[in-house]
Write a structure and sequence with these properties.
The chain is mostly beta strands and about 90 residues long. It has no helices and seven strands. Strands 1, 2, 3, 4, 5, 6 and 7 form a seven-stranded antiparallel beta sheet that branches. Strand 4 and strand 5 form a beta hairpin. It is globular and about 30 Å long.
Length: about 90
């Protein structure tokens, strides 16, 4: 099985919070690695479904369209598309 890393297709500044925002289109099984911090980033599933796991957390998280996950610890965060998905990452 080949792992394909997703690339951001759009990056812009959020008007409300002035936090960097990146939207990514992920195809099924695409994998995106983020660097976690104690307070962020946040991942919002805009379309489809994604699986999220973070270093030091034994729980896995599944997001469907409209759901959000806030990273709450340092370390690697992996986001994998369970099916084609679009996600927004807010730092």
């Amino acid at each position: 099985m080949a792992i394909r890393f997703a690339h951001a297709n759009e990056s812009h500044q959020s008007r409300a919070a002035a936090a960097p925002v990146t939207d990514m289109q992920l195809e099924r099984k695409d994998l995106c690695r983020l660097e976690g911090r104690k307070h962020g980033p946040a991942v919002t599933c805009l379309e489809g479904a994604v699986w999220i796991t973070q270093a030091g957390d034994p729980r896995d998280h599944i997001l469907i369209a409209g759901e959000k996950f806030a990273v709450n610890r340092r370390g690697a965060v992996l986001v994998e598309a369970v099916r084609d998905a679009r996600v927004r990452v807010t730092s």
